[in-house]
Amino acid sequence: MNKGLIIAAVLALAPTFAAAESFKDAFEMNRAMYGKNHTFTWQGKQYTTMHEEEAEAAVKATKANAEALLAKAKAKNAEVAKLGYEWKLTRGILTNAQTAIDKGEYRKALNLAAQAKYHARMGIQQYHYAQANWYLAVPQ
Hints:
The protein has two domains: 2-50, no CATH class; 53-135, no CATH class. It contains six helices and two strands. The chain has helices at 2-19, 23-34, 52-57, 63-83, 90-103, 106-132; strands at 39-42, 45-48. The longest helix is centred in the C-terminal third of the chain and has 27 residues, at 106-132. It is flat and about 65 Å long. Residues 52-83 form a coiled coil. Keywords: Coiled coil, Signal.
């Protein structure tokens, strides 16, 4: 009986272990299954499925908070632009965030600034991936 339970437990848990080999895999799997702000366990520690930009935007919608997040987004976008991996639509999002601040729509501005910062961060990740894997683009 105990052997059967152990085998059943191993078979039931094996796909979970195989599917979540890295933190990134575990995060993305839980994010896809449960959406943002879900708590999951990876290697014995608790994490949430919130991107850092979402956490930064989840503050009180004030002019100061919106301007601060917009400044961070602009700085991150300048960083990725220096690398040559700025995404085409990010500047427009930054402009829209500034417009929202000017109109007093601070929640909208926070969300747009968070989106722009996320795009810039993904551009930086794209740059590092391209630097490490450039040879994959070379015809054989």
